[in-house]
Target: Acetoacetate decarboxylase
Amino acid sequence: MTITDARITAAVFTAPAAGARQVLDGVPLKPVTLFGRAISVLMFIHYPEWALKSYDEVGVALLVRGPGGRPGLHIVELPVTGAFTREAGQDFWALPKWLMDADLSFGGTGTSVTVRDGGAEVLHASVGNGRLRLPFGTRLKVPSWSFLGHGAQAGRLLRGTLPMNLSGIRVGRGAYAVRLGEHPMTAKMRALGMLEKPLLTVTAARMAGALGEFRPVSR
Model:
């Protein structure tokens, strides 16, 4: 299954290790820490029409280690605007997708998003584009861990990769503003340092790559 022409904006944060461990309570993974700080990521992605149709998603993720100390990105919240991708994401990849209403906009100076659940605002955030435009793209496969307590993959630890073939990249410490409501997702965002200024922001005009199979791993 290949992503052909998505757009992505991401902000990278540091967070207290204790907050990261709290978010991972009940999950067989541990946060990667450096000088007592964990690394978290907030992502906004738009997918035009592809195998899972057209939709937006907002991801909250954490850099972790799994069995054998292997590092990877663990997505802890992943609301989406499409019911089909919600079901596929949960059943095939154990991704924590739930259905949201959202207004996601990529502009010349930055990206903004409003997320709603049942009509109530969950969050509003804006991320400015970084000043540095990279003259090259990336061809990466980011190792990923996933774990859900419900659904077809309930209780199974899975490992796979997330494609990050990016072009039209801008990096820096773009302006960041966020307003959080009261919601399980925003409780995790607070614990993962997402009220603070990001360490790094990344925007890519195009994201592509093959989304491979996630396989069970013994704990």
Summary: The mean pLDDT is 94. The chain is about 10% helix and 55% strand. The two ends are 27 Å apart (CA to CA).
